[in-house]
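job 3f2a | input accepted
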Amino acid sequence: MTTEKKLVLIDGNSIAYRAFFALPLLNNDKGIHTNAIYGFTMILMKILEDEKPSHMLVAFDAGKTTFRHAAYKEYKGGRQKTPPELSEQFPFIRELLDAYGVSRYELENYEADDIIGTLSRRAAEDGFKVKVITGDKDLTQLVTDTVTVDITRKGITDVDSYTPEFVMEKYGLTPDRIIDMKGLMGDASDNIPGVPGVGEKTAIKLLKEYGTLEKLLESIDEVSGKKLKEKLEEHRDSAVMSKELATIKCDAPISIGIEDIPYEGFDREQLIKIFRDLGFNSLLEKLGGEETEETAEMEEIEYSIEEEVTETMLADESALIVEVWDDNYHTSSIEGIAIVNETGQYFIPAEAALKSEVFIKWAEDESKKKIVYDAKKSSVALKWKGINVKGADFDVFLASYLLDPSETIVDAASIAKSNGIRLVKPDEAVYGRGAKRKVPGQEELAEHLVRKGMALVELKEKLQSGLEKNKQLELFNELEMPLSLILAEVEAQGVKVDVPRLKAMGEDLNRQLRELEENISRLAGESFNINSPKQLGVILFDKLGLPAAKKTKTGYSTSADVLEKLADKHEIVREILHYRQLGKLNSTYIEGLLKVVNQETHKVHTRFNQALTQTGRLSSTDPNLQNIPIRLEEGRKIRQAFVPSKEGWVMFAADYSQIELRVLAHIADDENLKEAFLNDMDVHTKTAMDVFHVEKEEVTSNMRRQAKAVNFGIVYGISDYGLSQSLNITRKEAGEFIDRYLNSFQGVKEYMDESIRDAKEHGFVKTLLNRRRYIPEINSRNFNLRGFAERTAMNTPIQGSAADIIKKAMIDMAFQLKEKNLQAKLLLQVHDELIFEAPEEEIKELEKLVPEVMENAVKLNVPLKVDYAYGSSWYDAK
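job 3f2a | predicted structure (878 res):
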């Protein structure tokens, strides 16, 4: 810790807003928006590293009204309501600050500025150096020789440091005259009126001449310019009031002192938990390894290291640990195997187990039940070694996930710990983290794997009891367990990639990129580096004169959202946007896919994440096949590279049509929605008809577009802010549209209200197949946290039920393919789509079988509809 007396004060609301709007909307796997939290954390980490404060506090606004509203009721009246996507993040920011050991404070009837002003004055009087961090230039009035105010400018870490010299250079005024300037020019962001027609330049000019606002008002007769004199005279009272509103209180009645806010460091274990829950893996890396009681010594156990597997070591039920070195179990080595059962506790070196006929026979015996951790991972790892594991009876990983999908599962130790079992250390405590990760000696590895097996044996009874209590045994035994083994088959099967075609696409994209570069240079009148934001800004805004946001020291913003708003202003902007899209396609998807093609199989073997999302949806990694962009034709064409693995075979794709809206119609039992699906109507047109009260022929494309946005908005947790962003309309218009929708679809409205009531009563919501999602925040006193929980309660049963349905369809299809002795194989699941490869002679049967199975996976009170197609590639199967 530093011995220097240094206080850092952060304007919490301002920095959170800055982070929210500087970063794109981000979600973690639990559906929580995280962009503001992530940006705030980045700023906080930089501050701690750069400033090394001895004392620190983050000030927050306490509410909507302050003492300033008594003076002027329209104060901040023009501000829009905080987007719920931001509001829901504030509780997490507060939790984060507590973990960082940073004090926080808010005071009823006062703003964060007043808390900062009061503490900065007290600290300066006590000999502290003070650094204020904010995005609000009002705080520059606090600047002194010992108080510096850092104003965030571009992004989340770029700041201007306001010292007395900097303020004088920028405005030609001393910091204490900032409030006089505000009194004259007002502040639109705070709805401070000032003097109409007086801007910053005029205000500065007047203050340089007269010194203060009061002296200026005493000398109005001396001011040159008749109109300016009249304005100053007419709005004298407004100027005085505006100065008062802009003046930060430095004597607010706060209940804490400098001695109450020392910075003494962070709680590493709590931060690790928060970062894991939020999905901040990069920040977790920066934090380094854990140092907790979990690394402490544990009670000794008995086990043996066996170089030979014998019949006497095996039993009808055993815990089986297959230890794979890294996440990519398709390519990773197996480091060792442990078996724990009634006969003993054994560690078998990988080479010995994989060569043992006794072990292989036991592993492939369906009657020998295995308790495992991640059945899919273990099955695939052994399948690559030629061993087809059977009898995986209980998966601790999946059971724990079903019991509480919000719990972050790191390894077997994390599940054991959450269930009160202290038998095994975390993997990181044994292997290390990141670049320091290494395989330990055989003795240490053997003990660790045996301990895992022992933990699995103890966990089975506890977790099975929990599933039974929750009435989730059927979901576990008939959906998730069989699905894990089907996914193992799918992953090991892989999907073939036509590498020459993929490379040809890359060459074609490079050709298009060169042509675009030439055309952009022609339109610009000169050659320049299109990938340089600085050079691009000069071309667009200085040379071509396109309207720009305010220029900063680093240049103009040329982000995608800025350019999209300018797309109709000049052809060059459309070309630049296209250039960026093609560049992203080439680097991320063409080159990215080429890197992960297996050199032996000529296939990609994606890994499906079965226990990650809280809704139950699958995701995939290495490669992420659910993210291949299909809006651009060039993006869709990437699917041309996915081809059948055999001559004379074709790709067959089948996808559910609007499954989530059909689930909504069923769950909500809404007559208007049901009518659309029962009569095979276009649901978005039907929605537009009901919301706008028009006939089918009167529905315009814009009406349908808005109806579609709100239909899917309901599914994903709608807000006026989110809808306004997707439709490029005002939040007021979006709010009115949502109200009209809910008036027209009373069943949906009742469903939404009932979902919230159920969540408040039980603490969770569930899907049609009884998948649970716990929502403890639903009864929170915090409005923002409660608002997020309510939206989660509404959309989880819809999204989760849709996920359950396609999982059930995958299981049913696997059974039917085997039952009918078909050669067709399931290759992929992407969102609501299943992709198969099959011999051409089986296509006629698949055309009948696949839709029939998928449409009858789960019975709803509206029909499920499946569209299918087939062709020589995934692209052609459309």
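job 3f2a | The two ends are 62 Å apart (CA to CA).
job 3f2a | closed
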